[in-house]
Amino acid sequence: MPVEIYLNVAASGLLTGLVYGLMALGLSVIFGVVRVVNFAHGEMMTLAMYLTLLLFSALKLDPLVLLVPIAAVLFVFGYLLQLGLINPFINRPEHSQFMLLVAIALILVNAQLIVFGPDAQGIRTAYSFDSYQLGPLIVDASKVYAAGAALVVAAALFAFFRFTLLGKSIRACADNYHGALVVGLNVRHLYALTFGIGAACVGAAGAMLMAVTDVTPTIGPAYTLLAFVIVITGGLGSMGGALLGGLLIGLTEALGGVLFTPSAKSMFAFGLLVLVLLFRPQGILGKKAA
Amino acid sequence: MIGRLLEGVPRRGLVVLAALLVLLAVFPLFASGYLLAVGFLILYFAYVGQAWNVMMGFAGQLSLGHSLYVGLGAYAAAALYVHFGLSPWIGLGAAIGISVLAGAAIGFLAFRFGVAGVYFAILTIAFAEFARIGFDHFAWVRGSSGLFLPVANYTENDLWNLRGSPTMFYYLMLAMTVGAFVLCHALLRSRMGYYWLAIRESPEAAEALGVNVFRYKMYAVVISAAMTSLAGVVFAFYYNNLFPEQIFHISRSIELILGPIIGGIGTLVGPIVGAFLLTGLAEGLRELMLQLGIDVPGVKQVFYGLCLLMVIMFLPDGVWPPLAKKLGLHR
Lengths: 290, 331
Description:
Oligomer: heterodimer
Order of helices and strands of chain A: HHHHEEHHHHHHH
Distance between the termini of chain A: 48 Å
Shape of chain B: globular
Mean pLDDT of chain B: 89
CATH class of chain A: Mainly Alpha
Shape of chain A: globular
Helix content of chain B: over 70%
CATH topology of chain A: ABC transporter involved in vitamin B12 uptake, BtuC
Strand content of chain A: under 5%
CATH architecture of chain A: Orthogonal Bundle
């Protein structure tokens, strides 16, 4: 096979990887602050994708425009979920939190199955078949836009956590739970806010991914696993790590698919995860736990 | 020996256990084919739940990838039977060997490199998923098109080749469940059992007291893997078909650990109570949907999820510990 094919596949993998990275960023933010592993992450992703589908067919708006209202809806969803259900579990053992989120995931997947049916559905934008040519590279326009939007959202999030007072107080909760309580921060509210922000990342990523691929309710768990693989590869709790992990996994899956068989592509992602866990358990950009 | 096993168990508990055992033993005489299948499923989940509980409930190591051991056991015995006509009991040797090796490899890598907590749980998922996709492309066991065991109408029960009626499988599963219960009871009372509990409560404190934490965590993984693979062997010969997409799937791993978590993690009776409740609930809901004429996929699972949510919110230690207290069965 000519080299151009590999380059094209790699470029496409990297672009999709950025969208995956944004989804994983949500998981990473939630874990980094609330210390809860969101086992319903992929199910929230398909929820966002279905919302995009509905709004697209009702309003004929571009997914890149829709990502703002959908991120907002997911934010509210995440906020209420944390405030109502997850906050009481903050000091419970890990397996107990895990069960709670598994139950939530089960309800989400099957509610979507009831509402939207089992068939794969997709949308077609005006630029679905457009592409850009850059020397030997030919890349899908949808993927370029989606990746660009993912970068913008991620940059906004970085800025929020670094420069705003609210972002700083959330980081304070992450650094020291009791310390945050002592200085009078409303930790329950901040946790809910964090979960909402994580869910909003998923909402934005879901809207963008809808421009690139189809959705079925049962794909949810696969996205959950994908998000795990990405954040652990990059470093759980590290924001840059999530994006880097997304790029790496996108690249690995794309090249694995073309070098071997496409159905075996996730094996390479899991292989990478195992290697990272063994040789750098904190992830590529993660900080070693004290 | 039996005297030592029964030591310290409250008399009321013994009476209840004996009554339950008698009930389970005579159950096939009255049950229809459908109920017998449900009974088998309950016992299956009680058994694998007990096996998983050794790792999580006793030694505190959360595995979310136990479908790996079910699948490896099932495939090892089924492939040897299909290719060489070997009895599943010989295949069981291979099944246990492979599962123990897999468990030991995961345990060694994780515990040597300090992978713990959430990371350990996700590592176990990664290995199970790796196996799922790997077996999809493993031609010797027919890959994703599935491995089928020859099915015929067996007039007599052949326990050596595990070919026979559902009743035979029911009693086999019952014997395994009782065996696992007795084994776990004995394990918990052994020196190793106390080491496990120490490790579960505080690995640092256990280490400081001179417990070889690495070694006993390894024992927990290996014993749990071996027990689980036996369930896989029986599963393969009961259902006669194996698909990597199903047997190694993460939903299988989760299904298997719901019982002990709902029943009461770390208790001996918990996995059994949990299996009864969950399988009963699932089948009851199915029946209810059928009666109501609701034929929408997903409705049953939403109810199931809501019930799980209720239990986990209001009974954080599971159903059994508070129930045992009410019945006066706790020690």
